[in-house]
Each structure stands twice: as structure tokens, then as C-alpha cells.
Amino acid sequence: MYQIIDGKKISQEIKDELKEKVSALAAAGGRICLAVIQVGSDPASSVYVGNKKKACAYIGIESQAYELPQETTQEELLALVRRLNEDDQVNGILVQLPLPAQIDEEQVIQTIAPEKDVDGFHEKNVGALCVGSRGYVSCTPLGIIQLLKRSGIEIAGKRCVVLGRSNIVGKPMALLLLRENGTVTVCHSHTVDVKEITRQADILVVAIGKPKLVDETYVKEGAVVIDVGIHRDENNKLCGDVDFERVAPHTSAITPVPGGVGPMTIAMLMHNCVSSAE
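-> C-alpha cells emitted (278 positions)
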């Protein structure tokens, strides 16, 4: 029987641990403040921002919300980011993606001060991950490492395959698994014989953005499968990149969608915020 990796439960454990840390910090006169910037009113972004604010309130982190109109110019947004960079009362800055078409996302990300980049997207933080020095790590991959560790799944010495090479998930995921002494292969749209490679994986992380693409033919018997995707299927039900019903019986452990990787992303954002103050 396979194990369902419960992201809700594990993320709650992490938030409770962080709450204690923040309480101790407050008792010593410290405080933590996260600035969250949203441009426009994309419904999915509004949900994410709302969840981040709730998590801040639960843990005891102060949040400053900047809700800017859709027509905000790049210069106006960059000016706000620079002002927050200079504000000693702000520990972390988060710009909710995606941004409207008139704004260059990459320039905005690189304008955030690396020491306040709690999303872990700045090239200095990505570079720090590459060379193994200290910096913020992208929240979703960091959360996946916690899911594995707290579920008693050994990474060292295991054959790990990451499906997808995005800057936000795929690439940092591969680097983190490598840091944990996994043997890592990254597959992408130009990989030849993908199934032949994924069927060798002890740990398979799927982050390709295509609903239910991965079925049992991609998976080795007894593998651990981590599903990063989130979509709506033909019945408007949430689903992932993995066809859960077909794949789960062939695994030793698997994350569900929803309730797997998703809750961990916000928990690790809170972790990065607390690290910024520590």
C-alpha cells in the first residue's frame, strides 16, 4: 500500500514551529515584516496573496499589502521596490507573479535586494544555491525537500529524476536534490526516451505544467512521486501533472493534488521570512 504524503499536515507543523520562533523573537524585541506587492486583480493571484497574508497573521509576521492597478507602469513598480529595499522595517519583499504585459518580470525580480528576496528568484540567490553558499531558496523546491525528509524518505544515494527545467521549480529542484546527495537527471521537452529515464527514478518530481500527462508507464514500481502541477480537469476538479488514480498504486509514496506540494510553498515562504529576521 502506498503512502500519501500529506502536505497540509507537514506545512502546518512547519508553521507551528515558525510561530514559536517568531514569538521568541518578539519577546526579545524583534519583529518581522513582509511586503507583498500585487499588480492588477488576477483571481488566482488574489487567492495566493490572501493565503500568504493569512499565513503571516497565523505565524505573527506583519504584512504590508501593496495592491496596484493593472495599468501600473514598470517605473512605478520599480520605484516602490527600491523604496522597500531601503526600508529597514521591511525584512522581505514579494512581488506576486505573473505581472501585466507592460512590465518586465525579470527586471523587477533582479531589482529586489537579494537579502530581501524571500521568493529566492534573484540571480544572486540562485547563484548561491549553485555553489552551495547561503541564500534564499525558491519556496516550492525547498518545500518538496521538507516533504521528503519529514515523510522519512531518504534522498542520499537515490536516483532522482526531475521532469521540467523551469527557473522557479525544475532547476532549483535538481540542485537541491544534488545537495542532498541524490543522483539527479533533468528531463525536458527535448529529452529523448523520457519514459526510459523516468522509469529508473527512485524519486520522480513532475513539474511540466500539463494535466495528467504522467501515467503509470512513466513510473518504476515502488518509486516516490512528487506532483508539482495544479490544473482543472474536464469536470472542473483540481488535478496535477500526474494521473493520480493510475500512478498511485505503483508507488511507495505520492503527493496528492490538492493537499500535497501546494501548502508547502507558502510554509517555506514563511520560513524564508523568519530566516531574513534571524
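The first strand starts at residue 3 and ends at 4.
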